[in-house]
Amino acid sequence: IGDIRGIIQKLDYLVSLGIKYVWLSPVYASPNVDFGYDISDYLSINPEYGTMADMDQLIKEGKKRGIHFVMDLVMNHTSSEHAWFKASLDPNSPYRDYYYHRPGKGKKLPNNWTSFFGEKAWSKNEDGTYYLHLFAQNQPDLNWDHPNMYNEFKHIIEFWLKKGIAGFRCDVVNVMYKTSLDNGKPRLFLKGLEKYHSTQKNHEILRRIRKELIEPYGAFLVGETVMVNTQQANDLLGNESEKELDMVFGFEHMDADQFLVKWFKRKFNPDKFNRILIQWQKDLPWNANYFENHDQPRSVSRYGSAHYHKESAKMLSTVLLTLKGSPFIYQGQEIGMTNVDYKSLDEYMDVETKNIWALAKKLWIPKFYRWHMIKTVSRDNARSPMQWDSMGGFSTGKPWLRINHNQKKINVAIQENDGDSILSYYKRLIKIRQQHPALIEGDFVPLIAKKGVFAYHRVLNNQKILVVSNMSTKYRKIKLNMDGEILLQN
Ligand code: TEU
What we know:
Blueprint: H1 4-9, H2 11-17, E1 21-24, E2 28-29, E3 41-45, H3 52-64, E4 68-73, H4 83-88, E5 101-102, E6 122-124, E7 130-132, H5 149-162, E8 167-170, H6 200-214, E9 220-224, H7 230-237, E10 247-249, E11 258-259, E12 261-265, H8 270-283, E13 288-289, H9 299-302, H10 309-322, E14 326-327, H11 351-362, H12 367-377, H13 380-383, H14 412-416, H15 422-435, H16 437-440, E15 443-450, E16 453-460, E17 463-470
Parallel strand pairs: 1-4, 4-8, 8-9, 9-10, 13-14
Antiparallel strand pairs: 2-3, 5-7, 6-7, 11-12, 15-16, 16-17
Helix pairs in contact: 5-6, 10-15, 11-12
The structure holds 1-O-alpha-D-glucopyranosyl-D-fructose (TEU).
């Protein structure tokens, strides 16, 4: 499954790649309904992954090698197995209002909200009342109006910062505070959104966390901010006197290959993708740049071409690592791992994938199209195990999710011995980035975003770096002044 001792074993690999920070998806105790995003105890490690002693050792071994850890912090919801939730099932418990328990309205649910995973946002308690969950049924939402909530998380945040972690990636951080539980306006999906999306109180909570808990430790926060434009993203960064997050993960560029919702894919539109990237580059002082994470399909399958697997993986990495901001590389991206080749629904583990399959069936979406949706969009595309070598590379045991059959061709062992591999390219690119201040602090000056060609300068004092990429599958001619030295090409 890839446990903490396994990460310790691979720290030197991360060093060879040039990695400085590692964001761990949640490793806390969890029944794993949503693979760690349903936390049952924030102060302990999931025994499947190891012990707290392993975690301490990981942090220590990382430090020796100049690698810092970022923990995932889920403040919007807990697991329904968390002690708070279990206690809250008793109406007289002091924990009752840690969550939103409400009676139904006659035969109806307390309101018309729908969840991120396509279901109704309420589920029934044994006593006939309902509880709110914006994600899976086993992920009840916390009530941030409760006077204890801040202190509960203060305790958790300080516990981890004292261990020496560098900061937090904050899960769905702009939907935590609900202004009311009134019915939401008519919307195709996520009914109720306007009652909790980036609310004023949410900003206040984040500013307080930042000032009182994060700043004293010199730590940082990168927020997963759902459905924000650049204006709203900037608001979540705050300003000099009242800072909030250090960086945000926006989603707008993830829309360049979809209609309305992610489950309806259309042909990738590179010009749209690049225009959105340009806008975020211009409007934000610093970006959290990513093309992949544990919720998104693999970028080389999504934006690249199977015919030009190697070239497109290298091209995408070049853009990712030369935009202004902090580049986030998702495990396996550095070897060009692709979407998985699962053949039937039972090979998938993801709760969202299963919910959407069921919902699509209810909506009479034909099976061939449901299958197409899952194949191209399922989060398990990114979650199949890291391809260390042609055997899988973990152990002789059965992995929690099947390894992609292309592991024989795409794996670390092969690429480490090939100077022309995607992995070798990443290594060179990261070095170049570290050696050229223009690629870090330099201004971003867009030049072309047309017909799949993306070109820009990064400029600092008299250092000027030109980045040109071709996201189409055709030859393209461009007119640009290109005198100078070639740093890297694919
Ligand atoms: O994701 C929240 C989110 O809005 C989406 O990216 C989501 O995963 C889904 O794809 C919406 O269709 C975060 C985590 O990254 C995700 O893994 C968790 O499942 C979710 O929050 C709940 O904690």
